[in-house]
Amino acid sequence: MRPLFRYLLPALFVAGCASTTDVTTRFTDEGSHPPQDTLLLVAHTPEGNIRETWELTCKDIFSSNSLTVLLSHQELPLWYEGGKKRILDWAQENDVERILVVELTHLLIDAAAPPAAGNQLNPMEQSAGDVQPTWKIGIGGDLAKDEVPDALRQHGAELINADGKPLWTGIATTHEASNAVAIAKSQCSALRRSLREQALIP
Predict the structure, then answer these.
(1) Closest CA to 70 of 50, 46, 42
(2) Within 13 Å of residue 133, how many CA atoms lie on the same side as its CB?
(3) Which one of 41, 126, 184, 198 is least enclosed by Cβ atoms within 10 Å?
(4) Cα separation values, 84 from 26, 88, 149, 195, Å
(5) φ and ψ at 184, to 5 degrees?
(6) SS3 at position 74
(7) pTM score
């Protein structure tokens, strides 16, 4: 039994660490966008505890020797008051050329009642008072109701530069329990992999 256990343990470990999030790319800018060494993570949600938990969890996943990760809840704790312009102004003043925004409004929404297909999925275009779940891509593409997979969570994500130009947009579909840390780990592992595959982050 001992030799068999020795081989099973690594397999179980890998299975336990597998990401439960699928990332679907909706748009990638075809221009040349060399990876930058600084990334600002923005969890778009009015729920401060969810925002902080998600950003802190994801910082460990995105950080590397070649990428410094900054968090919006630390750098711009009240950015909702200024919206997108405040984030972009801050990024330009601090030479931050990559901003990853993930729409987390109602993160723990009941999967049995997904948002209507007509809502918006561009996290950066919402005002402080508009906190409904979102389903319309920032570049204008609609996600029809019958296209929505039977999944526990779906969140829009957008990588922009300091001028606000979208470099990449996508949807993270997460099959995960109602636990903010577990969801963040799964989402950010998958997002990091997708963005690295497209050479948008180091």
Answers:
(1) 42
(2) 16
(3) 198
(4) 21, 6, 30, 22
(5) -60, -45
(6) helix
(7) 0.71
